[in-house]
TrEMBL record:
InterPro entries tied to this protein: Glyas_Bleomycin-R_OHBP_Dase (IPR029068), Glyas_Fos-R_dOase_dom (IPR004360), Glyoxalase/dOase/EhpR (IPR026275), VOC_core (IPR037523)
Highest rank taxon of the organism: Bacteria
Record lineage: Bacteria, Bacillati, Actinomycetota, Actinomycetes, Kitasatosporales
Protein name (record): VOC family protein
PROSITE patterns: VOC
Domain VOC: 1-120
């Protein structure tokens, strides 16, 4: 049985979304087609951006799920990522705050999909 988990983010333009996520993650895609692009996040985990599944995704539509990037380290590491992303012009939805499990913040990709940064645990 395969034990890989692929988190799929629906986007309007897969190549543009891949450039956005590649810049945030500091990595290149591991698999590319015109409408489906993945990033190998490590053993058993991939992030995919997929276009063509929905018409005209809008950042204004509320989202009920999010991709969580769990980072090693403590509050200083989360805060450093926040400052880096803010300097790149990434849309910040919630500023860094303590959510009971550690310092976290939420950003959005250009299509309005939510991206949480939080400590690994």
């Amino acid at each position: 049985m395969t034990t890989s988990v692929v988190s799929i983010v629906y986007v309007n333009d897969a190549p543009a979304a891949a450039r956005f996520y590649g810049d945030l993650l500091g990595m290149s895609p591991s698999f590319e087609t015109p409408g489906y692009i993945t990033f190998d996040l490590g053993p058993g985990a991939d992030l995919a951006v997929w276009s063509g599944q929905f018409e005209d995704l809008s950042p204004g539509v509320p989202r009920t799920s999010e991709v969580c990037l769990a980072v090693d380290g403590g509050p200083d590491d989360v805060d450093a990522i926040f400052k880096q992303w803010r300097s790149k012009g990434v849309t910040i939805l919630t500023e860094p705050h303590d959510a009971g499990f550690g310092l976290t913040f939420v950003a959005a990709d250009p299509d309005g999909n939510r991206i949480r940064v939080a400590p690994r645990g």
